[in-house]
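User: Fold both of these, please.

Assistant: Here is the first one.
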Amino acid sequence: MSATEGHEVTDVHAHLLMPGLHAEVERRVPDEVQAAADLELRRNGLASLQASGRMIGERFPRLTSVEARLAAMDEQGVDRQWVSPSPNHFYPWANEGLATWATGEANRLVAEHVALAPDRLVGLGTVPLQHPHLVVDALDDAVLGRGLAGVEISSFAGDVELSDERLEPFWARAAELRAVVFLHPFGCSLDERLDRFYLSNTVGQPTENAVALSHLIFAGVLDRHPGLRLIAAHGGGYLPTAIGRSDRAWAVRPEARGCAHKPSSYLSKLWFDTVVHDERALRWLVEAAGADRVLLGSDFPFDMGLDDPVAFVRGAGLADAEVTGILGANAAELLRTRVHA
């Protein structure tokens, strides 16, 4: 076991690519897959898509092979990973039948992958967010059917925002199961405004995190479901550092009073990973949300992740107890009381 105070060093943000799943989706609905690819081209631009293709090709073993994953974890000093689907497997455009099959298949494949190293890997599944009436069954399939720790969701899907009242049963069930809900955007609704300089990721991802979390906060979702265990990727994006503006709106705008308390108070009711790429931002996140609400993340194995996530946390100038929590104790506590299959 690596450092720290008897807790396993745990990376909560790592991905699995499932090429067989995608090939079958493409076989079933080639026109829809092509339309999705066209949207990605419009959102990202050709240069970024070509660079991403090369990057994924180079890192393909770490995205698919348990052996390559474990070897990389050893190099990073990581004892345990929470493995979630690569976000391209959300398929937010899929119809009900395809979405039901694809999410079930993704949950099965994640479970099979982590079962090859159960002492080191924890799985997160997915749900068809664009079909709110299907998400509770998908969550049950992931947690109770497959033994996963929770599910990964995007920041929106089609016309479904996280504030959508149709998702209330999902939030209630996730809280009841004490399941992890990992918020990880895929795509940004700003579309071609971000189609160069890799703005689709550098600006798009933190924007989507901020928008999605704001929907949850201002709609009162966290008031109604205080037991919800939601982790925001990328440190919650822009929201933690700009939360004062949300507090001001809550204080002066009647339409922004859907939550019971000022928005900044809800940061300590959420969890955030450490993929912020700046030691100052990590310190601010700890100050804004509390050290017990921050979890080690790397975005493994993508190039926009942290190459040495443990060193990043250790180099941020935090107190020893805060480092201990972030590197593993906080993640262990989240899993300690979860409902098992």
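And the second sequence with its predicted structure:
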Amino acid sequence: MNQIFDYPDLWAQALWGTVVLFLGGGLIALVLGFIVGAMRVSPIPIARAVGAVYVNWIRNTPLTLVLFFFAFCVPLLIDVPRGSFLTLAVCGLGIYTATYVAETIRSGINTVPVGQAEAARALGLGFGQVMSLVVLPQATRSVIPPMMSVFIALLKNTTVASGFSVVNLGNIRAVMSENGENQLMTIILVMAVFVLLVLVLSALQRAAEKKWKVAR
């Protein structure tokens, strides 16, 4: 425990980096994943095609390569301020995780009986109204558990950004090693922090499931 009390600033900075990567990447993933998920079930063929290409291309690319692209290729394509690796890592994590969010949303939408969407369209509702008023409220109940699994995976994937000069819990071991601290103890402490963070997410999942269960 002395490794925590002797380096409080280091742990605080590492934890903050992990939280920023998780929240920033999660926000991008939710927004982009919702859009791509809607494209995947859109009645417009070109929208479905674009959504399928995006999901299959990004999801089948290792996360490390995605972050390599954002760290080394994006600065060559656009003017990126120096020291913006954290922002680039957030974008990379968000765009990568969005593919899993999109597929989770699409799976949830597919659990809603087709007849309900057809009945809504027969009443004159457009695609957007059918999705927002009929399909999504029902699909939300079924996507909560798999969606939380996606965000738990995102939380753990934040450690990959440590290989690109982004300070987070994933690279605190290297710093401790340079200071002569026990690496095994550092790893155990980092594991304990991640377990606590995952327990928080699990508690949020149970609360959301309970709320939607009561709403039925």
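DSSP finds nine helices and no strands in the chain.
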